[in-house]
Amino acid sequence: MGQVLGLMFALIGLGFLLRILRVFPKETAPLLNRFVLYVTFPCLVFRSLQGAALDRRLWSIPPLAYTAISALFLLAFLIGSKYFRLPPKRAVSFAMGAAFGNTAFLGYPFILALLGEEGLPAAIFYDQLGNFLSVYTLGVTFCVFGKTGKFSGKNVTEFLKLPPFNAFLLALLLNGLPLPPFLLGVINRLADATVPLTMVAIGLSLSPASLSKDAPLLGVSALLKLLLLPLVALGLVKLFPLPPLYAKVLVLQSATPTLVSSYVFASVYELDTELSSSIICATTLIALGSLPLWNLLL
């Protein structure tokens, strides 16, 4: 896990250095984010699910994950908009940072290292059918609200237009079927580019001033994401018992730091990218200590 987190910060640092040196124009980060959302991230989604073993017992994980994540998102949005009196763009960025976890890039290797191959399918189901669906239903609906300032019936179906969701449906349709090696090779190469490109884009948009300016927001988002969300997941496991392995995966995935792609959505929907990048950096740094602690407590 330390290597994964170290890689994340190295790539963010590279992007920040490129910003300081003004190697690229200001438009570079938004362009990178669009490329990720429309090209590489769909490949990552497809690769993660198309070859996953679909054990029937795994289907008990997504409803609990979706419930916990959605509840935290709505709570965070209310805290941001009512207590901190944030405008819609910042309130949505704050809520995404407090609710959506880095359950693929960090969650997969962490679960694999801790629980072995047996725990990985559960981690994938949490990510794809819990975290992923909450992002592309509730998250996108509020992103549209943050951009336009109003809700409408169209917001609810916005996620249907996004390539990652279509990649998700296609992966379910083709699950377990053999695909041409050449096609898989192309998909794998593009999928592998998702995290590096996103991390560099975060560094390009990172503002040191926002880290101090938004310190209260960063502190509250970290408490919600790294403490309250796993506690909610733990409570749901007590109410709706799961096999011990699945229960542990559910809580540990809930304790991961903020989803890197939340920054991509903040950029694409013209929300507060500085706040998003700051929350990602803050929660990821704190997770160096909090994730091992959650593992010891379970």
From TrEMBL:
It holds the Pfam family Mem_trans. GO terms for cellular component: plasma membrane. One of its GO terms (biological process) is transmembrane transport. The chain crosses the membrane at residues 6-24, 31-49, 61-79, 91-116, 128-146, 167-187, 215-237, 249-269, 275-297. It is a multi-pass membrane protein. It is found in: Cell membrane. Keywords: Cell membrane, Membrane, Transmembrane, Transmembrane helix, Transport. PANTHER family: AUXIN EFFLUX CARRIER FAMILY PROTEIN, SLR1864 PROTEIN. Belongs to the auxin efflux carrier (TC 2.A.69) family. This is AEC family transporter. It comes from Candidatus Caldatribacterium saccharofermentans. The lineage of its organism: Bacteria, Pseudomonadati, Atribacterota, Atribacteria, Atribacterales.
